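Quick one:
INPUT:
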């Protein structure tokens, strides 16, 4: 049994807290929001973000960051990606040398183009930083529906330790050394999911969705491999697997926000309606800048940015994608004659 703190009490943090408690671990949940702490203590469920998923009475809820961090066997960092660096900076004084931090959010910092694990390492250099990612909506993990994910870590020892902590009969966990590939797949798929949602909002069908998923993973893999990620990560759970679930699921906040934009809402109106952080909006500009930096073609990402930030109509964006210059599907395939 491990003594674990989950930092961040949103839907994903709450679901993972329940999972870890089910696995026999001692779990403390930390939130920066005093009202959230009070609600979780009194109601024993997150009524707004994960209703119906009960927190056991022996799970601690705290707003004291030092208490949540010191002396824990490992920490699960589950705050939304825009707040990762700030939270890591506040954690630093309390993190022991070699203490494991598992980041479970997905995003890229626009100002630095850093993945979340790199931000944490920069703020807390003494930590052993790992990541957990894959097709895993909190609503289903909280209901104990079968799910598979991947732990990425620098060493096999850390990866296998975390694998044993998270794995259960409803939560299968694989390991991988490709932290960069895992994080790029997890963050960039949110941008493609916005595009899938926009297409749904415009009333397009399954053909369109399949095209966006397939060409979307092609864009993600092109960039990811150019940056040093491994192709296996993009063809696996943290690439195509996560992309499929985020583009297709009713639980996906990115798809939902895209749908509302396709229906005519502004970006801000859509995010207000979703009432959770839409991480694809925060990663979209970073994705476009990475594409430019590494000289990689990412037309879907570019059109999403045009819709989000330049006032381009979603219908015009789709038309421009369809009418781009003709080309072969895969330039590595060679004609015999």
């Amino acid at each position: 049994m491990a003594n674990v703190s989950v930092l961040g009490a949103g839907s994903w943090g709450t679901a993972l807290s329940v999972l870890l408690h089910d696995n026999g671990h001692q779990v403390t949940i930390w939130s920066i929001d005093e009202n959230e702490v009070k609600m979780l203590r009194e109601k024993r469920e997150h009524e707004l973000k994960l209703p119906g998923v009960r927190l056991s009475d022996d799970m601690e809820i705290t707003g004291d960051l030092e208490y949540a961090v010191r002396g824990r066997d490992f920490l699960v960092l589950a705050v939304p990606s825009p707040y990762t660096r700030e939270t890591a900076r506040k954690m630093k004084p309390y993190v022991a040398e070699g203490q494991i931090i598992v980041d479970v959010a997905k995003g890229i910092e626009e100002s630095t183009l850093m993945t979340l694990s790199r931000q944490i390492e920069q703020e807390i250099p003494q930590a052993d930083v790992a990541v957990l990612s894959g097709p895993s909506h909190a609503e289903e993990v909280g209901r104990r529906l079968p799910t598979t994910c991947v732990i990425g870590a620098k060493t096999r020892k850390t990866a296998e330790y975390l694998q044993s902590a998270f794995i259960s009969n409803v939560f299968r966990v694989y390991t991988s050394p490709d932290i960069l590939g895992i994080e790029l797949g997890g963050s960039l798929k949110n941008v493609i999911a916005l595009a899938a949602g926009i297409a749904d909002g415009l009333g397009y069908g399954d053909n369109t969705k399949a095209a966006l998923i397939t060409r979307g993973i092609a864009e993600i893999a092109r960039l990811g491999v150019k940056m040093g990620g491994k192709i296996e990560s993009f063809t696996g759970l943290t690439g195509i697997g996560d992309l499929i679930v985020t583009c297709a699921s009713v639980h996906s906040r990115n798809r939902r926000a895209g749908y509302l934009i396709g229906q005519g809402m502004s970006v801000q109106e859509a995010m207000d309606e979703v009432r959770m952080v839409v991480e694809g909006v925060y990663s979209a500009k970073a994705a476009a800048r990475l594409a430019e930096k590494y000289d990689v073609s990412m037309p879907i990402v570019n059109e999403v940015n045009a819709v989000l930030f330049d006032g381009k109509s979603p219908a015009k964006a789709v038309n421009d994608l369809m009418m781009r210059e003709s080309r072969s599907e895969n330039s590595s395939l060679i004609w015999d004659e």
